[in-house]
Prior knowledge:
single chain, alpha+beta, Glutaredoxin, 4-stranded mixed beta sheet, two-stranded antiparallel sheet, globular, Thioredoxin-like_sf
Amino acid sequence: MSFTSLLKRPSSTFTYLGRSLATKSISGSSTTSRAFNRFTVVDFYADWCGPCKMLSPALTKLTAEPNRSTNGQAYDLLKVDIDTDEGQTLARQYDVAAVPTVIAFRDNVVISQFRGALPEPSVKQWLDSLGKA
């Protein structure tokens, strides 16, 4: 199952922030469409995961507007709860063996990822590296 196929399901709670698509967050908050040519940062998490709770605020802060990569591209943050059916499907598809796992996509292609809760400066460094990928 791909991000695109999940988006085509009208009752889906899955979201993918990308090429002029209406989006909904799998965690429940709604977001509007974003422009093409942005980085999509996917955070695979679980509500019961302590390290996920530590990482989430840093990811949210560093991917929020007006933050941009070193090459000027904006970020879209997508949170995928692995305790949902769709989240488990995506976790298997992208070989997510532990949470938190964060994967960056550009134009639907994986360009980088990390596992575990990193401190905010390390998350910023990782996000900055996306502009060079």
